[in-house]
User: What shape does this take?
Amino acid sequence: MKKILTISILAFFILGHVHAQYRADRKIIRIDKHQEIKKGKELQALNLDLLMEKDGKIYIVASPQDLASLEAKNIPYHIEHRALYPEEQRRYSIQSGVNGAFHSYPELERDLMALADSYPELAQVMDIGDSLEKRNIYALRISGNVGLQENEPSVIFLGCHHAREWISVEVPYLLGKYLVENYSSDPEVKRLVDNSDIWIVPLVNPDGLEYSIHFYRYWRKNMRNNGDGTYGVDLNRNYGYRWGWDNEGSSPNTASEVYRGTGPFTEPEIQAVRSLFEQQDFQALVTYHNYSQVILYPWGYTEEASDQEGLLSALGNEMSRLMEQVSGRYYAAERAGAGFYLTNGDTTDWSFGVYGIPSFTIELPPDSSITGEFFNAESDIQPIFDENLPAALYLIDWCIQTHSSPSRFSSSQALQPKQKRLLLK
Ligand SMILES: [Zn+2]
Assistant: This one.
């Protein structure tokens, strides 16, 4: 079943079909998981397009030919009566997507608001800007006395620049949930929360995520209409540091999955991230993606090491060690451009290059295309969060140890007007 994925995504890249993938004759079907186990080889030979696994069912985007092949092989399936293509979109409600325990945009909005309502002294939800389709980009801010500006060391965790990387919403969201829910019972959590200002933006690309859930599971970019029949800018190639450095780390071709846009910071989703940096002094950044199971640090645009190689590598390796202790899963810490592949205009080159702060891209599991690619079962969410937790706590603590100023307890002041404007609750 896993190879099916490799082949279909490979075809997807090679053919360069992006929006051109819509085919009104395709249907979402589901097959019982035990069929996959029983008929694995036969299913594999069909090269089906896997959407996700949920509740013991495999969801697949199937053409009429696929359905005929399944029938010929006596593999039972059920048709899911759900929207997949834009022309059908209006006939279905926004809740009709197949996302299981993974958050959609409205589900995340609801859960973030609920967290802030339950823990008003510890958590606030801020609207840091709008997406192209006018969805809100939310930040969950967590700190002891969260209503006060206390000049504490500040860390930012980002998720879901890439729409199909659903697990990258869950890990930062669960981090926020963990911190507020364990504050009163765990003195270590209380110490970290009281002495820092933690910002969590779990969903940088809400339009893309909704599109991935409701219409096309492999969608990666935002929903920019490029005006030439193609859609989407790769939000993780649109940041302004060494933007468009070469055509290997990003693409000038609008149809490309790594299309960088017409200029740096053209996309409102990452303008929102930039504005937040202009108002808040961050000391470290983590941005979650998947898949690959690695911890990447700058530079991405070149194979060369930065002048902070020692620090970045030490922090990355310590996070890796802490993560491995939880589950035995190993996340290699690597310099992005040297160990992974070249990227330019990405988040971490920008936050490190412009602000000089330790910046990490954590590529969550699975570790390869063979073991699931962009897809994780619902049952993977909690274990993946659990193994990432100590790395996040370690980085928060590192900021506290490194950046705490003796005056921080005396310099409390009311929120600046700018931040008041952003405050939702
Ligand atoms: Zn990604």
Notes: The CA atoms of residues 73 and 368 lie 29 Å apart.
